[in-house]
Amino acid sequence: MNVSSYSSLYHKSANKTNSIYGKIASGKKIQSAADDAAGLAIGRKMKKQSTGLDVGAYNISSGIGVANIKDGALGTMQDSLQRIYELSVQASNGIYGSSEKQMIQDEVDQLLQDIQRSAVGTEYNNMKLMDGSMADMHIASNPDGTGMKIQMENVTLKSLGLEGYNVTGDFDLSAIESAMEKISTARSHTGAVTNSMEHAFNYNTRASLELTGARSRIEDLDIPKAVSEQKKDKLLSDYRMGMLQKKMKNDNVIVKQLFGGM
Q: Which H, E and C letters describe 124-156, residue by residue?
């Protein structure tokens, strides 16, 4: 083998050693398409899917926050309506005169104000959730941006049919019952979508973890094996360098012998 061949082998070995050093430093066995083109492409697709699932999980967690805020406000309204119903039944009793009924109405008015305040004041990120001004909220739970929606009800006094409700004159208890039914239905929808979002959140986090593990098996470097290979290549490189130096030395001796005798 001539000096040029030894030199070529040495440079190849040096390049391989540098590549191993780079892989050890990064912890990745695939640093470019030259290392594993198919593995690199698969790893990039997995990373895209995993990132989409992580973002979807974040979106879902925000959606769960919205649903919880809604449910809390609806629960408070439900309690207020239950109390109004009790007061209405009380006001229906013939033993009460106009002054007593007015005192009952004063409490009813306060409860109605609380309901209206919740309806127009319940917000998330400056978006009103229950006054009818907002369309159903889309939650992008999937990596492709699709997902589910949170239904946005209108539960103002007007929508509930309780605007101007007054127990001092003629009133209809069915109006309160209808309003209670509407709030109950709204809570039921909110609870159902909350459960659905929690299942989606668990799926996204689990699927993302599995994808990350699979990508790691494709891309991540086996450090002990790489270090062992690096040491082996260094020994081979040193050996080749020694052989190259010995070859050059022998060639120099031969040249001196040939031309020295002339």
A: ECCEECCECCCCCEEECCCCCCCCEEECCCECC
Residue in the block written with tokens 């040193």:
238
List, for residues 10-47, the tens digit of each pLDDT value.
455 555 555 555 555 555 555 655 666 676 677 788 88
Phi, psi of 236 (to 5 degrees): -65, -40
Q: Which residue stretches of the chain are H helix?
A: 3-26, 37-91, 98-121, 157-160, 173-219, 223-260
Q: What is the pTM of this model?
A: 0.71
Q: What is the DSSP letter of 125?
A: T
HSE at residue 234, side-chain half, CA atoms within 13 A, is 9
Residue positions counted in the chain? 262
> Following CA atoms 44, 45, 50, 56 in sequence, which dihedral angle do they give, to the nearest 10 degrees?
130
Considering only CA atoms, give the Rg of the chain. 38
> What are the structure tokens assigned to 21, written together?
């050093």
Give the whole-angstrom CA distance, residue 214 versus residue 53. 15
Reference 140, options 213, 63, 65, 252; nearest CA is 63
CA atoms within 13 Å, Cβ hemisphere of 203: 13
Tokens describing residue 99? 């002054």
pLDDT digits (tens, 9 = 90+) for 167-182: 998 899 999 999 999 9
Q: Tell me which DSSP letter residue 167 carries.
A: S
Q: 198, 64 in Cβ contact below 8 A? A: yes
Angstrom distance (rounded) from CA 28 to CA 26: 5
Burial of 164 (0-12, 13-18, 19+ CB in 10 A): exposed
**How many angstroms separate the CA atoms of 7 and 1, rounded?**
10
